[in-house]
Automatic annotation (TrEMBL):
This is Cation diffusion facilitator family transporter. GO terms for molecular function: zinc ion transmembrane transporter activity. One of its GO terms (cellular component) is plasma membrane. It comes from the Bacteria. It comes from Leptotrichia buccalis (strain ATCC 14201 / DSM 1135 / JCM 12969 / NCTC 10249 / C-1013-b). It is found in: Membrane. The keyword Membrane applies. It is a multi-pass membrane protein. The chain crosses the membrane at residues 29-56, 62-80, 92-117, 129-154, 166-186, 192-214. The lineage of its organism: Bacteria, Fusobacteriati, Fusobacteriota, Fusobacteriia, Fusobacteriales.
């Protein structure tokens, strides 16, 4: 005989959504990919033609941006998929994995640029001023346009990958300014070493940006406590709720940049005549109102029934 209590799991029944539609972010990222890819090719061939390592290094930075944006598009697509029986948290974490890979890629590229710069210190190459200067100016305009597009998108939708891309293009903008300065100094002094110095500075900017992105996403992937929350403060605040004696098995982490989860077990001062549902409700309201935490899992335990070794 079939068990009448057996039901199909309804993954639509969640207190918070584990997915998000990001139409604006998708349009923004596609526009950014096309513009970035076009200018990365211009910079690469311009750098090869002019002999400017600064342009070549910045082109590789731009290519890394293209790869990062492609990963971001994939993340946006999967983030819109709803939870299922295999992925009960949905696919929002793909956004974090994508950003983490992007950060590592930037760090590796920056090291490669420094190695090439060191080689050129011993084997300088002629640099064509006009080509270097013209492409750098065009690059500055492209990056300013991309930053404007990304900032406009972030006002409508908060997206970690779009935010990361904004930091990338801020770095690119500074790099373009650096290349322009290097080109002018090169023209005035004819010292190729300034092109090498600027390429090293660009690589340091790339490395710092990549490290920050990788660090932030690594902590999320490791389910560390979010930086903006104090675990001791939250722990002590929960203990101020009436009838709660102690809490343990305490965990606080990010599923994605915006979705914070918390879970813990509660021990009470007394158990007779206590309404467990009211206590849980008090805990949930406290965490939501004071800390913005909506995904709360609470378990009330009685030491006489639930053994604690």
């Amino acid at each position: 005989m079939k068990n009448e209590k057996t039901k199909t799991i309804d993954f639509k029944y969640h207190h918070i959504k584990h997915y998000k539609y990001q139409a604006q972010s998708k349009k923004t990222l596609i526009t950014s990919i096309l513009l970035t890819l076009f200018f990365a090719l211009v910079e690469l061939f311009g750098g090869i033609f002019s002999g400017s390592l600064a342009l070549i290094s910045d082109s590789f930075h731009m290519f890394s941006d293209v790869i990062a944006l492609l990963f971001s598009i994939i993340a946006v697509f999967f983030s819109a998929k709803k939870p299922n029986k295999n992925f009960t948290y949905g696919f929002l974490r793909i956004e974090i994995i994508s950003a983490f890979i992007n950060g590592l890629a930037l760090m590796i590229i920056s090291v490669g640029i420094v190695i090439e710069a060191v080689k050129r210190l011993f084997n300088p190459e002629h640099v064509d001023f006009f080509t270097m200067f013209t492409i750098a100016v065009i690059g500055l305009l492209v990056n300013v346009i991309l930053m404007f597009v990304l900032m406009k998108s972030l006002k409508k939708e908060n997206n970690l990958n779009v935010k990361s891309a904004l930091w990338h293009f801020l770095g690119d903008t500074l790099n373009s300014v650096g290349v322009i300065i290097a080109a002018i100094i090169l023209k005035l002094t004819n010292l190729v070493i300034f092109d090498i110095i600027i390429s090293i500075i660009i690589s340091i900017v790339i490395f710092i940006g990549g490290f920050k992105i990788a660090k932030e996403t690594f902590f999320i992937l490791m389910e560390a406590v979010p930086n903006n929350l104090d675990i001791s403060e939250i722990h002590n605040k929960i203990l101020t709720i009436d009838k709660i004696k102690d809490i343990h098995e305490f965990h606080l982490w990010n599923i994605s940049e915006e979705n914070i989860s918390i879970s813990f077990h509660i021990l009470l001062d007394e158990y007779d005549g206590v309404n467990d549902y009211e206590i849980v409700n008090d805990v949930v309201k406290l965490l939501k109102n004071e800390y913005g935490i909506e995904h709360v899992t609470v378990q009330i335990e009685n030491p006489e029934i639930n053994p604690h070794l």
